[in-house]
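Run log, item B.
One chain of 218 residues. Sequence copied directly from the ordering sheet:
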Amino acid sequence: MKNTIARTLVALCSLSFTLLASAAPVPWIGALGPGDSISIPAGKILIMEQVGGTNFGVDGDSLSAMVRITGPAAGGIGSNFTADFGVLVPSADDGTKAFPTPIRLGPGMTITHQGGAPFAIFGIALESQDFFAAVSPSIRSVTSDGAQLTAIVDARTTIPTRLSGESSTNLNTWTQTGVSIASSASNPRFSRITTPEDTSRKFVRARSVRTSVAGKAN
């Protein structure tokens, strides 16, 4: 009976992936001082993740700068726009500061330094067509020991990713409760997803999302 249940679980095990990233992201660093600007050319996307100061020996936790971002309507949504923003810039002695969420600039957009402290931007440059990039994950093995259902997932990508998993008994309601994930220390593209074998039917799905290349500053 145990073997029959195991085979059924293996047949019903389903995994789907979504990757929000470039197939070949390029680490990027740029500097902006008063009056400087950066324009994003056609076919490119710039993802700004962190900002760092270039003023060594400046006292204080942070400095400030004003930037203006302008751009065209994109994809038939909105219209040409101009927006002004303040940026908190750490002193050069304090390293870099991560934006709460990455700022994405698309083709035709321009960021201009309006005044205040000069700063460096750390981020990722990629091709527009690679912003939503497909991957071809595979399941190396699915096993059951009568207590747990385990799947080994090969993301087939060298892009830094974070894997999350959910389980279901009916394909309608999904939960992360009871699902554990462990990444291989020797090869991060492999992960093991485990969930209790507590019903006669068990489904598992996973999502792989790009993680920050630059990381967050302490």
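Observations after the first pass:
- The first strand starts at residue 26 and ends at 32.
- Residues 25 and 126 are 5 Å apart (CA to CA).
Flagged for discussion on Thursday.
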